Amino acid sequence: MMLAGAAVLFALVLVLFLMVYRRPGWGSRVSPGRWIVLGGLVLPAIVLIPLICYALYAGEQLLPLPGHAPQRIEAIGKQWNWTFRYPDQGGVETHGVLHVPAGMPVDIVVTSQDVVHSFWIPRFAGKIDAVPGHATHLRIQADQPGEYEGLCNQFCGLGHAGMHFSVSVDRPEDFAAAVKQAATGEGMK
Ligand code: CUA
């Protein structure tokens, strides 16, 4: 959306540029004051105001609001791996693989057992610090089932570069079974 808005603004500026270029003198019929008002205020306002409204709306969707209770999953960082806990699925744990249901908001509660790490799934929402003794919240929503990559994004010692995890986005009807299978599969190892 942001890219589309920027492209529209760029196209409008290009049109103005071409008009002035092809018909020299065209621009001088408009007074400098009017250029500033039209080109500097009206033109960007047409594009930027809808974009700001959209950004605020999209941002609100990502805020963990009290009262609204989507799926909650805990992500615990530790030198140098990630454990995921699913309170809504009986508190089972998976290691190195985060399962999330597709098409619904999920609150990831991020914390650390030792040093500061950073939880990041580049394809999803922003990264967030994992701080020992503190729980930070990050709301994500994955639209398409599939496999994604996650990683630690804060230097946390010698094993930092290998502190990856994978994200399995499951169809909502498969989610509970997938978590259970992942948790018990590990238990048998
Ligand atoms: Cu954990 Cu870098």
From TrEMBL:
Short name of one Pfam family: COX2
Keyword Cell inner membrane listed: no
Substrates-to-products reaction catalysed: 4 Fe(II)-[cytochrome c] + O2 + 8 H(+)(in) = 4 Fe(III)-[cytochrome c] + 2 H2O + 4 H(+)(out)
Residue span(s) of domain Cytochrome oxidase subunit II copper A binding: 68-181
GO cellular component: membrane; periplasmic space
Record's function text: Subunits I and II form the functional core of the enzyme complex. Electrons originating in cytochrome c are transferred via heme a and Cu(A) to the binuclear center formed by heme a3 and Cu(B).
InterPro entries in the record: CcO_II (IPR045187), CcO_II-like_C (IPR002429), Copper_CuA (IPR001505), Cupredoxin (IPR008972), Cyt_c_oxidase_su2 (IPR014222)
Listed PROSITE patterns: COX2, COX2_CUA
Membrane topology: Multi-pass membrane protein
Similarity annotation: Belongs to the cytochrome c oxidase subunit 2 family.
Presence of keyword Metal-binding: yes
Residue ranges of the TM segments: 32-57
One GO BP annotation of this record: ATP synthesis coupled electron transport
Annotated source species: Paraburkholderia fungorum
MF-aspect GO terms: copper ion binding; cytochrome-c oxidase activity; oxidoreductase activity
Main location: membrane
Protein name: Cytochrome aa3 subunit 2
Keyword set, alphabetical order: Copper, Electron transport, Membrane, Metal-binding, Respiratory chain, Transmembrane, Transmembrane helix, Transport
Location relative to the cell: Membrane; Periplasm
